[in-house]
Specification:
702 residues, alpha+beta, Rossmann fold
Length: 702
């Protein structure tokens, strides 16, 4: 249809057309001070490798991890399994795991390794014998299994898998004549959540838990019903712990879940928790007498921090562990002797691994875990603990500011910390990587301390001449940290001082800090961000006339909000934003969460509660040239959010362009080429409205 309307084609910017604006980079256009050949250029994204999911063998001698690389031909982030000899550091690809693979898990005796992969285009679970490298598939799967875990005796494997359900309908279509070409049949929807980001329109059915023999065979379904069940963990060889929400009104309460015990002998199911709120991630102790889990009492707030609990195996004697610690618990693993747990916490921009004894006393083990997202500097990572042999030999993902995640190992008793990989030694030592500085600034609103990190261009000097990009994280309940990020390095390499911030609402600083935006987002987090920008201008790090702002998702709404409140930025790029909380609460894949927890009102009875926090209500205040970008298959902040903003800007005669990313869900940077297109189009837009660039063009007669 677009061919019939050529006059409309110029109104939607394409990736190529906007990127063409970047013919000259903003900071280096008139300077030879930097060696451009050593910059972190766009194509370097394809050179990056990083490590995830390091799994240490029970005897502590071998680590198997997922080694990620970017496939230039398929434009994919691919993972392959590699093994490391802990003693010597020797690495080799894992025999028997040819092709893309992930989720490695050791058998209890350490002789076999379970992993997920695909065969002939179908999902697969395979086991490889570590002494011979021979492998075999466990079963034929039509749906992808996930969360696979070994039974304590190594004889069975539990996992989750989607089970198709009966499609709703109210009529039976007549039979088509042979050879006829009728239209596709109608699709009837009767679920409240009927599409989800990254999955599109959902098939009828639910995730259920299965068990199959470790020698292979037919999976046995052990949970049933319309509710999703998952998170399987073995309490003993005959009992599984699973989590899910079996309440009749589960669609109306998206965070609710309980932990259940499933007896495999008769498939009886017993609830072990019963409070109003999510209880999940059950983890039995080595002797099976105690269960660690995470959750909280649901108080219908925008954000509530997970807490760490213990209970007896029958669900009794529930007690919170380390209640006074402000960090948010993430991954949890028992120590081999069952006398303590190792817990990964979000903690002031980084992930720290702490050992917590059963009285709640805490000892720090590792402080540099994280950095497994190479696009933006989010904290992320994981660890595993050897169950036998040495004293708590731990494998973990090590995070750095100047390179993607590596595999590290440490002994908890000696603190002998080693980094075993150097996956980008062939690239990064030969580039001028941006140095990262940490700053802390008092918010102009109330003096609250705000933490931020600044990436500096290779030829930086504090002379007040450099352009600055404020890059805002999404969530909004998430956390940036001092970790490698291709987007940040790209901006800095092209001459931008780039600052990324954890304003109020960020996680890792305690529940009160995150809850400071409850029913007030966006709000005073705006003051936090502006305080950081003003501080950098005062330090002479940036030219006050060359300020730019961008962010995605939660950062997209804050970018849109910022330009309704100030004209200090020369240009803005709002990526996958929320513009109208009413439409977000009615049509997003997390609409129930937005309505029930964030706004806590109904849009049909109190529209003002939604509109007063929506940038769409203040578009008439915007004068800043503002680019809008969204994935065409985004169901988290759907395309119509960005389109509302773009149309409103056009109607108010504000310079704007709309970029739609074909095939992309909410996570635009999920493929290398999309990450490149995102950052380069943003910089192209900024270059177009950079006052220094405009003056330079005028001086040369362009």
């Amino acid at each position: 249809m677009m061919e019939d309307c050529p006059v409309k084609l110029h109104r939607i910017a394409t990736a190529a057309s906007v990127a063409a604006l970047m013919a000259v980079s903003p900071a280096f256009a008139d300077s030879d001070a930097a060696d451009k050949s050593k910059r972190f250029t766009a194509e370097r994204v394809f050179d990056m490798e990083y490590a995830t999911d390091p799994q240490i063998s029970p005897d502590g001698r071998t680590i198997v991890y997922v080694r990620h690389s970017m496939d230039r031909m398929t434009d994919r982030d691919t993972g392959h399994l590699w093994a490391i000899d802990v003693e010597t550091g020797t690495q080799r690809p894992l025999l028997g795991a040819n092709g893309s693979a992930g989720a490695p898990r050791w058998s209890p005796d350490g002789t076999r390794l379970l992993f997920s992969t695909s065969e002939n285009g179908k999902p697969a679970l395979k086991i490889v014998y570590m002494d011979t490298g021979l492998s075999y598939s466990l079963a034929q799967f039509e749906e992808a299994p996930s969360g696979a875990t070994w039974s304590p005796d190594g004889k069975s494997i539990a996992f989750s898998m989607f089970v198709p359900g009966e499609k709703p309908g109210f009529a039976t279509a007549p039979k088509q004549p042979e050879g006829a070409k009728w239209s596709d049949p109608v699709k009837v929807i009767d679920d409240l959540t009927f599409r989800f980001d990254g999955q599109g329109y959902l098939e009828d059915g639910s995730d259920q838990v299965f068990v199959l023999p470790a020698e292979g065979g037919s999976p046995r379904q052990v949970t049933k019903g319309e509710a999703d069940m998952g998170g399987a963990a073995w309490l003993d060889n005959d009992t599984l712990l699973v989590s899910g929400n079996l309440a009749d009104d589960r669609d109306m309460d998206p965070v609710e879940s309980e932990i259940y015990a499933v007896e495999l002998s008769d498939l009886s199911i017993t609830p072990l928790t019963s409070r109003d709120g999510p209880d999940h991630s059950a983890l039995p102790s080595p002797d099976g007498q105690t269960i660690a889990f995470r959750g909280y009492n649901d108080e219908l707030k925008s954000y509530q921090q997970n807490k760490l609990y213990l209970m007896d195996a029958n669900g009794s004697n529930v007690r919170e562990l380390a209640p006074d610690f402000t960090g948010s618990p993430n991954q949890v693993r028992w120590a081999p002797d069952g006398k303590s747990l190792f817990v990964l916490f979000e903690d002031h921009g980084v992930l720290t691994l702490n050992e917590v004894d059963l009285q709640g006393r805490m000892t720090s083990v590792v402080t540099n875990i994280g950095g497994t997202s190479i696009g933006r500097p989010y904290a992320g990572g994981s660890f595993s603990v050897a169950k036998n042999g040495r004293r708590e030999q731990i494998a973990y993902t090590a995070g750095f500011a100047d390179r993607p995640a590596e595999v590290g190992t440490i002994r908890s008793d000696s603190r002998d910390n080693r980094i075993l990989t150097d996956l980008n030694a062939d690239v990064l030592p030969y580039l001028d990587m941006s140095p990262i500085e940490e700053i802390k600034v008092a918010s102009s609103h109330d003096g609250l301390e705000i933490e931020a990190w600044v990436a500096l261009p290779p030829d930086f000097k504090a002379d007040g001449s450099f352009p600055l990009i404020l890059e805002i994280h999404g969530g909004p309940f998430s956390m940036y940290g001092p970790f490698f990020a291709s987007e940040i390095q790209r901006y800095a390499a092209e001459g931008y001082v780039t600052v990324y911030v954890n304003p109020r609402g960020s996680t890792g600083y305690g529940e009160d800090f995150a809850q400071a935006i409850d029913r007030a987002y966006p709000g005073y987090d705006y003051d936090d961000l502006m305080s950081v920008v003003d501080d950098l201008v005062a330090r002479n790090y940036a030219d006050p006339d060359r300020l730019f702002v961008t962010g995605g998702s939660g950062g997209g709404i804050l970018t849109a909000w910022i330009v309704t409140k100030t004209d200090k930025f020369a240009a803005a790029a709002s990526v996958k934003p929320v513009i109208n909380w009413m439409t977000m609460a009615m049509a997003s894949d997390i609409s129930q969460y937005v309505r029930r927890h964030w706004i806590r009102e109904d849009p049909w009875t109190n529209p003002e509660a939604f509109l007063k926090l929506s940038p769409i209500s203040y578009v008439d205040k915007i004068v800043t040239p503002t680019l809008v970008m969204v994935g065409e298959e985004d169901w988290r902040t759907p395309t119509w959010e960005a389109e509302q903003f773009y149309t409103a800007l056009k109607m108010n005669d504000v310079e704007t362009a709309l970029i739609r990313v074909p095939g992309s869900p909410h996570y635009i940077a999920g493929r290398p080429s999309r990450l490149i297109a995102k950052t380069d189009n943003i910089m192209g837009w900024f270059a177009k409205y950079d006052p220094a660039k405009t003056e330079s063009d005028s001086d040369t007669g362009e």
